Amino acid sequence: MKVFIHGLISSGQGFKGRFLRQRFPDMLTPDFPGDLDERMARLEQILAGSEERHILIGSSFGGLMAALYACARAEKVAKLILLAPALIYPAFADNPPGPCPVPTVIFHGRRDDIVPLEPTRSLARQVFSHLRFHVVDDDHMLHQTVKRLDWEALLEETMV
Fold first, then answer.
1. Residues 68-122: pLDDT tens digits?
2. Which of 17, 55, 56, 72 lies in disulfide reach of 29, CB 3.0 to 4.6 Å?
3. DSSP SS3 for 89
4. Are 85 and 106 in contact (CB under 8 A)?
5. In Å, what is the CA distance from 77 to each residue of 15, 64, 93, 132?
């Protein structure tokens, strides 16, 4: 199951959710209202019924959610694709989990003025044992990057 998890001030119907669903009609792009606990409970509910391992794509606060889920339930996650993930949020940064064995690919804009690049990269290197971290010439929204990525290859690729 492929699931896109939107950011804090967005929805599953935002640019990235629509973009991904157009290319992958089977991708889930649900809405996550509420605080972090409510959002995580909703994510748990969505993923609970499936026996397959998930590919989670998380943007900003959704990247934080995907990382929290994967680190707690690594056996249920095949891969993480994180877009400018808000890993510096206290729920993650104050007591970083790890090592998290889930293959993880992160894209972070060098012009991101919402989630700082270096603290995020440092924390990601500390937590994820199978990490590829890409710094791209984009801002926090990563709209240009999202449009340019080879999503088919990214979703199918197996990382070791």
1. 999 999 999 999 999 999 999 999 999 999 799 999 999 999 999 999 999 999 9
2. 17
3. coil
4. yes
5. 24, 15, 21, 16
Number of domains in the chain: 1
pTM here is: 0.95
Which domain covers residue 116, as residue numbers? 2-156
CATH number of the domain that residue 127 is part of: 3.40.50.1820
- Residues 28-83 pLDDT 10s: 999 999 999 999 999 999 999 888 899 999 999 999 999 999 999 999 999 999 99
Q: Could you tell me whether strands 131-136 and 104-109 are parallel, antiparallel, or unpaired per DSSP bridges? A: parallel
Distance CA 154, CA 149 (A): 8
Strand partners for 82: 58, 106
Separation CA 30–CA 4 (nearest Å): 7
